[in-house]
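Supplementary Methods. Inverse-folding protocol.

Structures were first reduced to a discrete structure-token string of length 199. This string, shown here, constituted the complete conditioning input.
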């Protein structure tokens, strides 16, 4: 479980294809310092398992399913990535409950720079639109954000200076693909309501 508060920007140093999967090596010393085999680290919002600590970085396996259903398949040597270690029970919940299980992929549609922040609009798969509400939470490439506007095919957010300088969203251009994870609470509520009242 994660909070959507990015701890550091890392750099992909290698992507090794393994047929129906891949291994990704990421360099970032503050994240790697206590990374151990089996630890969970969110990479652009995707929960990956550390298989090896490597100098000032770590290596993680990425299944073919993950490569197909997230934007991780576009990563290459030199790509910046948002990193967050799994939350501890004592962690402050600065963002919202994020699982690292991507629900879909969107694209940057529009950026409007402001004096102190940017307004950014992303495409939204229609299958996810019912889970996204104005003033609700959504994780974009692992960043917990508040939705400021939403329709059936897109949503907008405001990016504060910290988000612009400390995450990949600050430099994501028009057409950039991003991982989306909707609020898990919305999905549970939907399922409970669909089940109806117990007999």
């Amino acid at each position: 479980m994660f909070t959507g508060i990015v701890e550091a920007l890392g750099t992909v140093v290698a992507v090794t294809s393994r047929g129906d999967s891949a291994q990704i090596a990421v360099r970032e010393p503050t994240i790697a310092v206590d990374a151990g085999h089996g630890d969970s680290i969110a990479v652009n919002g995707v929960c990956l398992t550390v298989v090896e600590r490597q100098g000032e970085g770590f290596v993680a396996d990425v299944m073919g399913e993950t490569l197909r259903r997230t934007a991780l398949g576009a990563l290459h040597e030199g790509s910046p990535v948002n990193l967050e270690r799994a939350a501890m029970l004592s962690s402050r919940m600065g963002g919202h409950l994020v699982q690292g299980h991507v629900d879909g992929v969107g694209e940057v549609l529009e950026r409007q720079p402001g004096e102190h922040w940017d307004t950014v609009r992303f495409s939204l798969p229609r299958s996810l639109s019912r889970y996204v509400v104005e003033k609700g939470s959504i994780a974009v490439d692992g960043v917990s954000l508040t939705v400021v506007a939403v329709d059936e095919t897109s949503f907008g957010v405001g990016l504060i200076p910290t988000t612009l300088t400390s995450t990949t969203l600050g430099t994501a251009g028009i057409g950039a693909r991003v991982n989306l994870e909707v609020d898990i609470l919305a999905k549970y509520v939907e399922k409970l309501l669909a089940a109806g009242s117990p007999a």
